[in-house]
Every structure is written in structure tokens, then in C-alpha cells.
């Protein structure tokens, strides 16, 4: 008897497999739902729907024979309710897919930003090390300043030699 209860419990605990196996591409359904959701948000859709409603009402108000949806337009309301019942989940599905794409994009951007930060910190450390190493080496501006100082000293000495002494200046070399 306990075997029968155990078997019954195990059957109740595990879901039964469905008799109907639906094999469809989830991505294809998602792409179609995104297209439908994008179309539902356009001015073209609003214009088409407005024309459809105006024609529907005009035909049902003016037709002498064959009024399929008289004044309260219950069939038209049913059509709009059915459309809303399908449009809302399609729009939500499209939003969920967009949210997933945004999440993946955000993660990629975050990883790229972390890599860029690490690269920048590495380059900053390398630049600091180069500055320390170059601190001992004479730079172009330093050499230029030193040469200018030497030239001004030589010019000053030359002027001192030509302006002082016996007044004769220097003797020419032979």
C-alpha cells in the first residue's frame, strides 16, 4: 500500500510531459513581436486604424441591407479588445528583448570602461617612471638655456677685451 502512495506522490511531484510538443524558434517569435510592436507605434498604423473605423461605422450606419454591426458597434469593440489583448503582450515581449539587449550592452560598456581605466592607470605609471628617468637627463630647453648663457658670457668677455686695456684692441693673428 505504501508503494502505491509513494508512486502516486512521485507522480504528483513531477510534472507530466505535454502531449503536444511545440517546436518553434523563440528568436523568430521575438523578432516578429518587435516588428509588430514597432508598427503599432507608428502614425501609419493610427491612420490605417482610423480609416478602418470610419469605414466600418459609415457602412453600418448607411447600409440599408447587411448591417452586420448595428449602432452600439459591439463587434467593433470586440475587435478592439482582441487587438489590445494581443498587442499588450507583444509590446511587453519586445520591451523585454530590448531590456536584455540593453543589459548586455551595458555590461560590455562597463567591461570596456574598466579596461580603459586599467590601461590609463598603466600609462600614467609608465609616464611617471619615464619622468623620473628623464629627470636626470638634460632636456632640449635646458641645453638651449645653457648655450645661451655661454654665448652671452663669451660676448661679454669679447666686449670687455675690446673695450679695456691699451685701447688698441687685439692684435690680428698671423
Automatic annotation (TrEMBL):
Keywords: Membrane, Transmembrane, Transmembrane helix
InterPro entries: DUF1003
Residue ranges crossing the lipid bilayer per the database entry: 45-65, 71-93
One Pfam assignment: DUF1003
Stated name of the protein: Predicted membrane protein
Organism listed in the record: Rhodococcus coprophilus
